[in-house]
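debug: dumping io for the single-chain case to check the tokenizer round-trip. Nothing else runs in this session.
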Amino acid sequence: MLSMKTVAIVDYGVSNIDSVRRAIEECGAHPIVTSSFRDLEKASHIILPGVGSFPVAMRNLRERRIVESLKEQVVAKKIPFLGICLGMQLLAATGEEGETTEGLSFISGTVRKFQPLSQDYRIPHIGWNSVIVVRDNPLFRNIDPASNFYFVHSYHLDCSNSEDVVARTPYCGEFVSSVMRDNVFGTQFHPEKSQKNGFQLLRNFLSI
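debug: decoded output
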């Protein structure tokens, strides 16, 4: 039962996480908003949200001793993990925002800024756009393979390994909008702001 799931929502100072907390509650699980690495050890699932700067986010995670705990819980113990927006970008090996910064390295790749192909493409990319599922995965179960989700971002994750890519979105050519490797999942869009499809995705995550 989802009501038995305890979800650690990592608060590291770069995100308004109230909407994520409310979404998890509505999906029937128990959210714990925390900046303590000790709380991660108690969780059945971990969510890393985020809006803002890659370098600042990684610095805050390190200062709070969360990086080491995430690697212990996610990599070693295989706790289901979901990165949202900036949280997905932090899964990468490196980010190019401002200065080259080392990420969590859960997914092989680099976070790069969008390069608009014409004046028709505005950066940041804000609003609803289609998410086209390209491989079987549990995150998009019972969701149409070309559904719309809500985005707000100027950078995207350029994956080194195509096997990590779950979904792509047509914008500035095309970019990776969801990833998966083992128990690690990421969405560039905000499921908590994506209404019915977003809540179904969160329920799918909680069932893993």
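debug: round-trip ok. The chain has a mean pLDDT of 94.
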